């Protein structure tokens, strides 16, 4: 990105434009997956395994087939292409054959005239099994003699799907040089995405192929999966995301599975087929955040300078690979935290168990290790007798520093500013004194202040740079309005508004003149997934690229239109340079171009800056740029009940240039709420491989009463030369930082050390009474 | 009569017809905040539902005999808004923790009582205030104290064809200090892990009379009368009440479930007494 664009005065970028989709959503006009209906549409229901690990002896669907409203039944033999849900590996079948590996694994599909009939028919399926020994815990799954869960071709050894390392410096020497060493084991459980809209897709047979409509983040993944199961060329599968009621990673790979199921029913019956989960089916059968067992050892000099860290962690991946190797890689790179550490040793494992496959969730493997590294920092501060903020300030990465993977940070490192600004906003020292004073006065209540600092590698990173790309197609209409087509989706995060702002800014048109076309895989080249906080940065750069080309053409035309050498365009007006009095609406120039057969379309393309990685040492340029954040939480703990209330919260982020501050603050506030839930209350229990009570009555997410009355959210903007107008990613970072600040505040208030999420009242009371 | 949905809902014209429909096996339906959830999950499979939520005889909030009579189909929100309930602060404290605003607008006091959950938030003040449950059925009307009406988790003294007509809630003598606290995993829309309601009558800085009621720590809401007696003559000083709190912990009979362990509930039951003492004025 040219230097001038980072410093340019902007008309729309950096301004609080209202969401383009706000009115339709508020009025209930936005159409979500279940709102769509097609003539002759069938309803799909999966017959699912109720054993964690078993051989399928018989699968008798004759009663189900006889149900009067059943139109078709699909078994593995009916799949026209490959029986697979392709993600990174190809180990997960669409429908189980021979063996089931987790409770909820699909065995067969019913297509019926009504949802009730599909449900009734599914209940008529007769399955007999021979149970196999099941293993549900990752530490047990890697023991000698543990039952084999992983499909061998997809695993490195036994049930270890993936083992990755970082070897930087010499950890042993580092610890020998350390004056203070802390050590701890941390445990985290599942986190459920709890998107408002459950999973849902509709497969519609169309001329020579299949169209898929649905609630999803990654249309090109779905295109690939449907083509694989139908045995069709990619050109015959078209994917159109509907309005999507939240994703958070839960709609990254899972919609591929749903779409493939609906597609095989649609292909066999020749009729549109809808598959929409209710909440219980969604919770039982879809991805979640990986539970983790995480061990850290961290050493510093007496003055707090970090010298060494040794980390070993195990993530429960569930029965199939899905996205676990990618999740593990992000966790690996993020495990040492945003600090200068000369000696780093990390061993990361993802392990197969007979449980539902885990997958992408905002933060993508990093929140678990962030809980650990931020706890270690506070434990070190305690041992050193040092202010925890001071310890972070001392070790925080700055421009020119080297990360734990040996990457030299050459630009856009806003972490030190974020820490300073957060400290200033909350009045750190005064706040700590205020809390101490409160604690002296109250018998049964204690307050605590917690801090966390995080870094976030924007984009796919060096494990999958092939996915870090995006296309855009811009069209100037003959009336001066602009249509923008991209391949990345709006799932509630505000992408369409931000991309429209970038298009309008660059073209010199009013925001209201820009319309985002519905995403359709047939419109633009494969633009990679809508994940990894990359849409503003990468899709935004593609829009910028197309908009610049189109603007150059409009300027050329306008020079001819006016018969001058130079023109200016702004706010949908065009005029000869220096003669604003001669301005005409852009619509006139657009019409003139249309009359004179100008090409009014432009394509744009962007890819992430180069990255590299050595799998043997874990060293390299892991991500092209990093975002940073510093969060501070104040909590109050009831010493009689263990209940925790987050009273106040301060969040400062460096995500480069912020394109839309209002939307950005919304993303931060939402991430804080999700982080509070992760740290304090979200717990999904399972027994014998079965998730018990899959509902929001038992799985608690924060309500408006559980988030602080006071949120202070600010941005320190360290522009990134590779991002449009200097923007980096933001989406995942707020959640990543928030939970750790809350956890540290709870520990500080109780005088104990929280080592397991969530900090339920019962667990906190134990901390209080053990302290 | 009107039908709708896969489960038939019958709309009786008056209380008498409602009673005879219930006698035929119909399940009374008012706000539906419990009934619909359980029917939909298949936990309850009534032949039909009898919608009593709008019967005028069940909708009143009237002063009566030194108390207030609340129709069974009065919603929690209506009761919270009523000036008569303002004279029963402990009732307001408890009702305002039920579910969330939408649930309080739909759910009814009669429904909460009939549901007989040991975690029922409205039951705590009804036990504390020694309310009576007025029933109407094929054999006429009768009235039972709360403690005789609720027999166990989900179990009541309702006879075939009987429905709850109203609750009679007496105003307590004097101005007792009210306390209510519900402990759960979050601050709203949550089922109590343990709850304590209390009324304390103080004289000269010591307890002259006390009533306690605990939720979610026994098969029914519990009135620990031994502890109520033990409090007599004591100041509301958390520093002095630890032995009585421990006694309260011993007395309760909780279970472990998905929300908490029995040990935690036991501990918190006693601790809530200390919390009451710490939060209430001492004189």
Describe what you observe in this structure.
The complex is a heterodimer of chains A (771) and B (283). Chain A has 3 domains: 3-30 and 469-607, 2-Layer Sandwich (Aldehyde Oxidoreductase, domain 4); 33-133 and 197-282, Aldehyde Oxidoreductase, domain 3 (Alpha-Beta Complex); 408-460 and 624-771, Aldehyde oxidase/xanthine dehydrogenase, molybdopterin binding domain (Aldehyde Oxidoreductase, domain 4). Helix content of chain A is 30%, strand content 24%. In chain A, the strands form 7 sheets. Chain A has a 7-stranded mixed beta sheet with strand order 3-5-1-12-9-10-11, with helices on both faces. In chain A, helix 15 links the parallel strand 18 (482-486) and strand 19 (514-516). Chain A starts with a helix and ends with a helix. With 283 residues, chain B is α+β, with helices and mostly antiparallel strands. Chain B contains 11 helices and 13 strands. Chain B has helices at residues 15-23, 35-41, 76-81, 89-95, 101-106, 109-115, 123-128, 146-149, 225-230, 242-251, 262-279, and strands spanning 9-10, 27-29, 49-51, 61-64, 67-71, 132-137, 140-145, 150-152, 155-156, 163-170, 177-183, 194-203, 206-215. In chain B, helix 10 (242-251) packs antiparallel against helix 11 (262-279). The radius of gyration of chain B is 19 Å and the shape is globular. Chain A binds chain B through residues 116, 443-444, 638, 640-643, 645, 681, 685, 692-693, 697-698, 700, 702-706, 760-762, 765, and chain B through 6, 100, 183-191, 193, 238, 258-261, 264, 267-268, 271-272, 274-275, 278.
């Amino acid at each position: 990105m040219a230097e001038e664009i980072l410093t340019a005065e902007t008309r729309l970028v950096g301004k609080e434009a209202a969401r383009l989709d706000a009115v339709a959503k508020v009025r209930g006009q936005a159409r979500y997956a279940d709102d769509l209906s097609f003539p002759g549409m069938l309803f799909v229901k999966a017959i699912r395994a109720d054993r964690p690990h078993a051989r399928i002896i018989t699968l008798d669907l004759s009663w189900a087939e006889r149900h009067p409203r059943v139109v078709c039944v699909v078994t593995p033999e009916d799949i026209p292409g490959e029986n697979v849900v392709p993600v990174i590996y190809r180990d997960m079948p669409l429908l189980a054959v021979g063996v089931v590996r987790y409770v909820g694994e699909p065995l067969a599909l019913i297509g019926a005239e009504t949802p009730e009939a599909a449900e009734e028919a599914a209940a008529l399926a007769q399955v007999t099994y021979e149970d196999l020994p099941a293993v549900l815990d990752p530490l047990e799954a890697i023991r000698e003699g543990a039952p084999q869960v992983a499909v061998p071709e997809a695993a490195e050894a036994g049930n270890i799907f993936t083992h990755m390392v970082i070897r930087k410096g010499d950890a042993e020497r580092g610890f020998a040089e350390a004056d203070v060493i802390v050590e701890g084991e941390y445990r985290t459980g599942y986190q459920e995405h709890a998107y408002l809209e459950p999973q849902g897709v509709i497969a519609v047979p169309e001329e020579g192929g299949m169209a898929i409509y649905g609630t999803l983040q990654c249309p090109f993944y779905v295109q690939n999966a449907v083509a694989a199961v139908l045995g069709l060329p990619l050109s015959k599968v078209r994917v159109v995301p509907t309005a999507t009621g939240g994703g958070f990673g839960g709609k990254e790979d899972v919609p591929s599975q749903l779409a493939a199921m609906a597609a095989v029913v649609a292909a066999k019956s020749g009729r549109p087929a809808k598959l929409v989960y209710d909440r219980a089916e969604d919770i039982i059968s879809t991805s979640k955040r990986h539970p983790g067992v995480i061990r850290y050892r961290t050493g510093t000099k007496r003055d707090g300078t970090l010298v060494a860290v040794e980390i070993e962690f195990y993530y429960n991946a569930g029965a199939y690979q899905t996205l676990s190797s990618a999740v593990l890689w992000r966790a690996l790179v993020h495990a040492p935290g945003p600090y200068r550490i000369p000696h780093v040793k990390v061993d990361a494992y993802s392990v197969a168990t007979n449980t539902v496959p885990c997958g992408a969730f905002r933060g993508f493997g990093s929140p678990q290790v962030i809980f650990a590294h931020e706890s270690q920092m506070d434990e070190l501060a305690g041992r050193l007798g040092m202010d925890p903020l001071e310890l972070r300030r001392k070790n925080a990465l700055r421009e020119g520093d080297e990360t734990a993977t040996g990457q030299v940070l050459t630009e856009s490192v806003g972490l030190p500013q974020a820490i300073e600004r957060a400290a200033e906003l909350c009045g750190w020292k005064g706040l700590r004194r205020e809390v101490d004073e409160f604690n002296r006065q109250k018998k049964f209540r204690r307050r605590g202040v917690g801090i966390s600092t995080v870094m976030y590698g924007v984009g796919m990173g060096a494990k999958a740079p092939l996915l870090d790309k995006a296309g855009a197609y811009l069209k100037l209409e003959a009336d001066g309005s602009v249509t923008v087509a991209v391949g990345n989706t709006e799932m509630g995060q505000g992408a369409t508004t931000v991309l429209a702002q970038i298009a309008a800014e660059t073209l010199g048109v009013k925001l209201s003149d820009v319309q985002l076309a519905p995403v359709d895989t047939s419109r633009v080249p494969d633009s990679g997934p809508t994940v990894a906080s990359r849409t503003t940065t990468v899709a935004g750069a593609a829009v910028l690229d197309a908009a610049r080309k189109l603007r150059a053409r409009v300027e050329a035309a306008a020079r001819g239109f006016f018969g001058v050498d130079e023109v200016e365009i702004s706010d949908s007006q065009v005029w000869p340079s220096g003669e604003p009095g001669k301005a005409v609406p852009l619509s006139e120039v657009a019409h003139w171009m249309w009359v004179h057969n100008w090409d009014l379309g432009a394509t744009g393309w962007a890819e992430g800056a180069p990255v590299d990685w050595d799998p043997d040492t874990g060293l390299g340029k892991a991500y092209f740029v990093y975002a940073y954040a510093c969060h501070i939480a104040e909590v109050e703990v009831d010493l009689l009940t263990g209940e925790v209330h987050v009273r106040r919260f301060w969040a400062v982020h460096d995500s480069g240039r912020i394109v839309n501050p209002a939307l950005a603050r919304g993303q931060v506030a939402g991430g804080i709420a999700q982080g509070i839930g992760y740290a304090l209350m979200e717990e999904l229990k399972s027994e014998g491989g079965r998730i018990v009570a899959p509902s929001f009555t038992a799985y608690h997410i924060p309500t408006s009463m559980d988030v602080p009355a006071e949120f202070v959210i600010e941005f320190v903007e360290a522009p990134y030369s590779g991002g449009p107008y200097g923007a980096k990613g933001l989406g995942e970072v707020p959640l990543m930082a928030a939970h750790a600040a809350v956890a540290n505040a709870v520990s500080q208030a109780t005088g104990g050390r929280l080592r397991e999420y969530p900090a339920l009242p019962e667990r906190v009371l134990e901390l209080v009474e053990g302290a | 009569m009107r039908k709708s949905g896969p489960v038939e809902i019958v709309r009786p014209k008056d209380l008498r017809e409602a009673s005879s429909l219930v006698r035929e096996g119909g399940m009374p339906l008012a706000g539906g905040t419990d009934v619909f959830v359980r029917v939909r999950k298949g936990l309850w499979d009534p032949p039909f539902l009898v919608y009593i939520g709008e019967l005028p005889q069940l909708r009143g909030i009237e002063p009566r005999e030194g108390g207030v009579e609340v129709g069974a189909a009065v919603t929690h929100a209506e009761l919270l808004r009523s000036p008569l309930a303002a004279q029963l602060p402990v009732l307001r404290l408890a009702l305002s923790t039920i579910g969330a605003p939408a649930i309080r607008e739909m759910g009814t006091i009669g429904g909460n009582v009939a549901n007989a959950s040991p975690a029922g938030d409205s039951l705590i003040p009804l036990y504390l205030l020694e309310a009576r449950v007025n029933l109407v059925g094929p054999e006429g009307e009768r009235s039972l104290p709360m403690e005789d009406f609720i027999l166990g988790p989900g179990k009541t003294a309702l006879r075939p064809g009987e429905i709850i007509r109203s609750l009679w809630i007496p105003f307590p003598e004097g101005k007792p200090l009210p306390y209510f606290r519900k402990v759960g995993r979050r601050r709203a829309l949550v089922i109590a892990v343990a709850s304590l309601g209390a009324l304390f009558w103080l004289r000269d800085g010591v307890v002259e009379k006390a009533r306690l009621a605990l939720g979610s720590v026994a098969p029914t809401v519990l009135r620990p009368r031994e502890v109520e007696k033990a409090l007599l003559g004591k100041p509301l000083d958390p520093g002095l009440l630890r032995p009585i709190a421990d006694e309260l912990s011993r007395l309760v009979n909780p279970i472990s479930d998905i929300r908490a362990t029995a040990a935690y509930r036991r501990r918190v039951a006693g601790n809530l007494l200390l919390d009451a003492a710490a939060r209430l004025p001492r004189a």
